Amino acid sequence: MPFYTIQQGCSEEREWVRNKLLGLDRLSPDNKEKVLTAWVSAWKSSSYANLEDMPGFSFSLYPLLDHVNDVVHFGISMAEEATKRWGVTVDWDYLIQIFLLHDIDKPLLLNRDGDKIVKSPFASQIQHGVLGALLLNEIGFSEQVVGTVATHATNSPFHGSSTEAYILHYVDLFCADRAVILEGQTPYYQKLSLKK
Fold first, then answer.
1. How far is CA 5 from CA 47, 48, 129, 146, 147, in A?
2. Cβ–Cβ contacts within 10 Å for residue 37, how many?
3. How many domains does the chain have?
4. In a domain? residue 150
5. I want to staple 145 with a disulfide (CB 3.0 to 4.6 A). Which of 5, 44, 141, 167 is the partner?
6. C-alpha torsion 100→102→103→105, nearest 10
7. Considering the domain boundaries, does residue 24 fall inside one?
8. What is the CATH number of the domain that holds 171?
């Protein structure tokens, strides 16, 4: 059984995804269509009937779409401030793509079992980020986007060195901590400091 199948989806499905994701208006038309194809492919290849049911984390029912939209929202703010304050230059099209696509494989790696989130059989075969990168590569995303998605997870053996990858890392953890706090658990930044 394949990990996923690339699917365009029908116009209603593409429109539904288009209406749920923030930041699409900041992408080139070609990249916007590829992002829609990636989301439709992950959705239709998953066990979920609709995107609202997809969890963003193995420890929480916090929706994947909420997490991704939080990353887009706070990521744009962070990048704009870094540009103003430090004179940082970012490639906005690339940045928005990685915000929207960094967790594209979560629907394939996480399943629901009642009110619990369980790892799918794929999760023991391939690391988070890598599966998403394979899907994105097949759709035709740039090597830069594919590489950043493949290595963005905190447990990745190495990480990208671009400014955009750096911004994604911090905003992703910032937004993940929101989900952790909502669950009444210890945020990542405190877990990391407790290990010392």
1. 13, 14, 17, 17, 20
2. 22
3. 1
4. yes
5. 141
6. 110
7. yes
8. 1.10.3210
Range of the domain at 23: 11-194
Is residue 28 in some structural domain?
yes
If one counts every other C-beta atom within 10 angstroms of the C-beta of residue 108, the result is: 25
Q: What is the DSSP letter of 111?
A: E
Distance CA 106, CA 46 (A): 9
Q: Is the dihedral of CA 38, 161, 159, 126 positive or negative?
A: positive
Burial 160-171 (b: 16+ CB within 10 A, else e): bebbbbebbbeb
| Closest to 36 measured CA to CA, from 104, 90, 107 | 104
Confidence band for 59, pLDDT divided at 50, 70 and 90 = confident
pLDDT over 60 at 18, yes or no = yes
Do residues 59 and 28 touch, judged by C-beta distance below 8 A? no
Residue 119 is given by DSSP the state: E
Q: Residue 195 pLDDT more than 60?
A: no
Q: How far is the C-alpha of 194 from the C-alpha of 196, rounded, in Å?
A: 6
Do the Cβ atoms of 56 and 64 come closer than 8 Å? yes
Helix H or strand E encompassing 115 = none
3-state secondary structure 30-64: HHHHHHHHHHHHHHHHCCCCCHHHCEEECCEEEEH
Residue 152 lies in a domain: yes
Task: Place 192 in a pLDDT band, splitting at 50, 70 and 90.
Answer: low
